[in-house]
Structure formats: C-alpha cells, structure tokens
Amino acid sequence: LAKTTQPISMDSYEGQEVNITCSHNNIATNDYITWYQQFPSQGPRFIIQGYKTKVTNEVASLFIPADRKSSTLSLPRVSLSDTAVYYCLVGGTGTASKLTFGTGTRLQVTL
Amino acid sequence: KAGVTQTPRYLIKTRGQQVTLSCSPISGHRSVSWYQQTPGQGLQFLFEYFSETQRNKGNFPGRFSGRQFSNSRSEMNVSTLELGDSALYLCASSPGDRSRLTEAFFGQGTRLTVV
Known about the structure:
The structure holds two protein chains of two kinds. Chain A is mainly β. Helix content of chain A is 0%, strand content 47%. Chain A starts with 8 loop residues before the first strand and ends with a strand. Chain B is mainly beta. Helices cover 0% and strands 52% of the residues of chain B. In chain B, a hairpin with a 2-residue loop joins strand 5 and strand 6. Chain B is globular. Chain B starts with a strand and ends with a strand. The model of chain B has no long low-confidence stretch (mean pLDDT 93).
C-alpha cells in the first residue's frame, strides 16, 4: 500500500473551512483514496472516498489533482464536534479488510 | 441496521492472564478485521477473518489469535498478557468482497488494561 504523509496537527476556528492535504507520491493506478475520522476512544469512521477529480458528500469534499500524488480533504464550516484525528489511506480493491493507517492529522477546533 | 458491536467495552487483566474479546459484525458482512491502537504505535492491523478462515495477518506474535464463527461473529484471544498489550482493540466489519472497493465499519473498541 502507498505510504501517505499528512500534517501532524491543525488548528481552526469554528465556522471556518478546513483543508487537510495528504501526499501519496507512490499511489498505484488502481488505488483509491479514503479518509477516516476518529474521535477519542472510538473506532475510525469513514468520511469519503475518491479516485480522481472531486468527490462531495454531505460532510466533506475530496479534491484529487490529475497526477493523483496528493489529495485534499475539505471540511466546510467546521464545528467543535469536528475536533478529531483524520486519517488518509490509499489502497486498491479489497483493502477495506486490511487498512494501513498513518499517523493522521489531529484537528483542533476552537471558538 | 445495527452497527458493529464489541464486548466488553473495558477490561482490566493481570500480566500472564489471557483475555478474549468479542465482535459482532454488521449483518451480511463476512469480513472481520482486528486492529490494535496504542499511543506509541497508532493503529495497527492484527488479522482478518473471512468465512471462518484467517485471510490476512499482521505482524504480531502468536500470542494474538482469533477465530470466526459461521454467523460471522469473531473473537480475538491474547494469551500470556504483557503490560505492552494495554491498548484499544478495534474490530472492523466489511462485506469482504475483494472485487470491489468498500468502506470498513468500526466498532467502539475494547479498552484493555494490563496491570
């Protein structure tokens, strides 16, 4: 599985848009990019998944440039409850059962 | 649709003892994976069971084992507990179909403390 690099931590104020970038220079042709969110003492929760260009759902957007060597998770108008660790994962089909987590990005949202 | 259920939520054991953790996956999911999370090592993959067979295995010693029943429920066992086994143990459920990409659904975990 491709190695990922994310910032260790980020701070934001409530109501702002937060963009977390992940680098994955060795991404393979059949790899997808998936983001998970984890609150303390809970299991990770799937946020969004994409292959190229832009994907949007009810909680986030995922931007993937043409070379796919990086991706950006965008959280619109964050609230205090978005304070969590965000993990970027890269992998191909069949990898939902064997996930490789990096260090993640600890997002702290304050008033 | 019920989520992934892990029991117990908290557990305190003494060094040298053994422990069994349980995971009930989402109905219809055939794959159950186990992960260990510690502050120092982060989230690490232990093993995966699919249709009662171990399909993938992480880099953990043989003291860590598991099994899956015909109803897809899974148990994880750790024998001869060490202080370093103190961690949050997470179970993840997924359909298990390797032909397509899908998301994993995690339980809330079992917090194991070894004293």
